[in-house]
C-alpha cells in the first residue's frame, strides 16, 4: 500500500534548514556560473549606466505590475521608462558589493534555467501575463525561504524607490514636493 500524504511526516526543522542551505548554494552557483560563462553581459545597455540588456525585459514586465494602482493605466509605459531611468541612476550609486548582489538577483531571475523553477514563470518575461507575475511576487513574498522573501523585498524596494523619487509620482500620493529653499 502506498503511503498517503497524511501518513508522511511533515518537513522537520532540520529538513527545512538543509533545503534552505541547498537552495542558497544552488542560487549562488547559478549566479556565479552565469557571470563566469558570459550568460549575463556586464556591459550596461545603450543609454544606461548600470542596467544591462538582459535585465530590461524582466524589469519592463515587473514594473507595471508593481506600479498597478499607483499610475493611471494610460501612463504605465511612460512611468515604466521613467522608473527604469531612476532605477539605473540609483543603482549607479550603490557600492560595488551591493551592485554585484543586485546583478546576481537579476541574473537568477532572467536566466531561463532558474526563472521557471524559482518563479513559476516558464515563458520569457516579455510573454508573461500580469497574473503570472503577481503570482510569482506573491509566492516570493510569502515563501518559507528567507532568501526568496529577501529577493521580493529587494525588488519591491528598488522599484518603489525609483518610482517615488520622481516628481510625477508625488501627486498621486499627495506629496507636494520638497520645500523650496
TrEMBL record:
InterPro entries, A to Z: TAT_signal
PROSITE patterns to which the protein is assigned, alphabetical: TAT
Domain of life of the native organism: Bacteria
Protein name: Twin-arginine translocation pathway signal protein
Species name: Pseudomonas bijieensis
Lineage, uppermost ranks: Bacteria, Pseudomonadati, Pseudomonadota, Gammaproteobacteria, Pseudomonadales
